[in-house]
């Protein structure tokens, strides 16, 4: 702005105010970088919280759950089950291979895989997991009688629409009673699933409830497979409660 000194005709120019914060080009670059760092930090924190308390991503490498889950499907498991929400017969669950059903890992995870595990994009890279359907809860008696051609739970025969087309409910006869704190699990592709039936030499084939990481809830990839994972509650609706032992 222009002005005159009092008592003179001399005009003077007011000096522009200095930039007290030094907001030049370098400051703008720094502000941009800072905002990016903050956004990434918040995203990582949210991802860590989500994968720790709510959902975690898993990859399906085999056909043991076809056609409910296909090879190369990516799923999200609800980590609040078991926990605030309870497990039920028919739930498809992800559980740690604490009993050694799978062969040891051939290679150690890479640093990149460990990072993806930390932020929740992948499960723990140094652990192995399985995905199966719960058939028997603690106290249940689960059996297969080839003469009937159906599984029975606590004496009630069930029809299983999720079984892979052409498969029998089981290729072997068995009868087990599930202990407290355990579950009996089977794959939907019964002829291609090394499930509880095939591991009776290890803890009777029963899986510890403490090993369960969560219930498979959503198929997230590929996009053509988007959808929820059905527990088929109707299959087990008429199953009586287990007899107290």
Give me some keywords for this one.
245 residues; alpha+beta; Umud Fragment, subunit A; eight-stranded antiparallel sheet; four-stranded antiparallel sheet; 2 helices; 14 strands; elongated; disordered N terminus
Can you walk me through this structure?
The chain is α+β, with helices and mostly antiparallel strands. The protein has one domain (55-235): Umud Fragment, subunit A, CATH 2.10.109.10. It is 16% helix and 26% strand. The protein contains two helices and 14 strands; from the N terminus they run ββαβββαβββββββββ. The protein has helices at 25-53, 111-119, and strands spanning 2-4, 11-13, 55-59, 74-78, 92-96, 129-136, 141-145, 150-153, 156-158, 174-177, 182-186, 207-208, 212-221, 227-228. Strands 3, 4, 5, 6, 11, 12, 13 and 14 form an eight-stranded antiparallel β-sheet that branches. It has a four-stranded antiparallel β-sheet with strand order 9-8-7-10, with no helix packed on it. A hairpin with a 5-residue loop joins strand 13 (212-221) and strand 14 (227-228). The chain is elongated, with a radius of gyration of 29 Å. Mean pLDDT is 84; it is low at 1-8 and 11-18.
């Amino acid at each position: 702005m222009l002005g005159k000194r009092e008592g003179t005709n001399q005009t003077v120019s007011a000096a522009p105010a200095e930039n007290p914060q030094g907001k030049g080009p370098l400051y703008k670059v720094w502000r941009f970088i800072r905002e990016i760092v903050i956004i990434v930090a918040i995203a990582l924190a949210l991802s860590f919280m989500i994968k720790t308390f709510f959902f975690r991503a898993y990859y399906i490498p085999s056909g043991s759950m076809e056609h409910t889950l296909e090879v190369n499907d990516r799923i999200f498991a609800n980590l609040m089950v078991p926990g605030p929400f309870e497990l039920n017969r028919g739930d498809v669950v992800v559980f740690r291979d604490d009993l050694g059903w799978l062969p040891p890992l051939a290679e150690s995870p890479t640093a990149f895989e460990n990072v993806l595990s930390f932020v929740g994009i992948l499960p723990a890279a140094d652990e192995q997991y399985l995905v199966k359907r719960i058939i028997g809860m603690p106290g249940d008696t689960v059996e297969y009688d080839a003469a009937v051609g159906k599984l029975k739970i606590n004496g009630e025969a069930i029809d299983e629409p999720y079984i892979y087309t052409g498969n029998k409910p089981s290729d072997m006869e068995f009868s087990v009673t599930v202990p407290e704190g355990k579950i009996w699990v089977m794959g939907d592709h019964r002829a291609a699933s090394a499930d509880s039936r095939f591991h009776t030499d290890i803890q009777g084939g029963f899986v510890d409830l403490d090993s369960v990481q969560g219930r498979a809830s959503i198929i997230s990839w590929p996009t053509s497979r988007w959808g929820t994972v059905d527990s088929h509650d109707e299959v087990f609706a008429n199953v009586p409660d287990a007899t107290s032992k």
